[in-house]
# Entry
Amino acid sequence: MNNFLIPFFVILPLGAAFIVALVPKHLNKVADAIANVSAFLLLVASAYVCMNNVSGVYFVGGWKIPIGINMALDGFSALMLLIISIITVASSIYSISYMEQFTWKSKFYCLFLLMVTGMNGVVLSGDFFNIFVFLEIASIASYALVGYGCRHEELEATFKYLALGNLGALCVLLGVAFVYGLTGTLNMADFSIRTAGNLNNGLLVALGLFIIGFGLKAALVPMHAWLPDAHPSAPTPISAMLSGVFIKATGVYALVRVSLNIFPAMQVTHEIILALGGLSMVVGVFMAIGQWDFKRLLAYHSISQIGYVMIGIGLGTPLGILGGIFHLINHAAFKSLLFLGAGSVEYETGTRQLRQMGGLSRQMPVTASSTLVASLAISGLPPFNGFFSKVIIIWACVQAHRYGYAVAAVVVSVMTIASFMKVQKYAFFGALKSKWEKVKEVPATMRIAMVFLAVLCLLMSLLIVPGAREVVLQPAVDSIIAGTNYVTHAGGL
# Structure
């Protein structure tokens, strides 16, 4: 029965996307209901498979590999489904009021659900080509969503995102072509069995193309140029989705799964991941600290924080991978919350410029409090979730004798604190400017989404406790470490 639950994560949002597209413009409440009920059902299903450590493989149409298409669920993919669903619920609740300022909500929800479909599909796909297919479904929907407001800035960001996104997709497609041409199979488990760890030059080229393609989707430096424009320009719920889960599902997850589970986990691959992670962590925070556009500052911090994740996973040690996975889900929570907070400020004031704000905590206490929680979490201060994952990554670097990365992680964390002290000072503290005296708190649904994620930033700290860690995080860590087990499991062998 659990195996038949696997395609549910693709079928439900895909079906809901087609249904909500038929809702007339004057029935926005119906569109809200369809999108939010679908998101809640996905959350219930993903919580079930994650908490019960459900794993399995579903053969589409009953055809076994290598002829048929399979969808595989293990600890890593289950955890990704859970975090995608959590951020989807928060973003869809937030959208109920926020998207009233745009026309035709049903079209927005259609694209929103298609993006969720694509992300879930990438996480569950058991063959190279269908990873590409779902990657494109998610990407094309996100291109349209970034430019949804049709303003000059949004359309310009969409064009840059589209151009670089297609370049990344082309690299992935060329990698798929190399794999099929050299091995005669597209199924990842079958490919791994056929090659048995022996890679010729052509397959090494394919691996390089996958690293570039998925690295671009993850916005790793130097493949990050699209992100600082796309994330601030998108409607706020989409900014939260892009930073919270999109770059992780289509970028980080796919990169880790292919390069460490399907292809043999070579030392050179770990070194490349470490180098990309370290570069992203440092460059991202240096670019962020000088920004005065609230959402653009957050966008650069997404690049920096993904660097922490890649360093942890790139170490290849159990502790490093644990820290990387922990920080991946932590970042999804606090960065989504930060974008929702920034969007709430823009919703009421009409500006994203920190210099033009000030004293907003008096007028918007819920937004200010929840943004403060997220700022403390991303800065790595206890007792918030970001502190524990950062400490694990830094200690894992020390244990692996990667002292340079450990020092860099500490320095970047200090600079992150400085960056968000600036945010708090200029946006929420200080004297209230006269032009903001009539500003009020955002509508209830937007506040609910922010409070939900703020509470989550505190509760996720409990994942450091052994019992909770073994249930939620350890299956994902084991899935990455035991790559050969994934191959056997995903192939249904």
The mean pLDDT is 90.
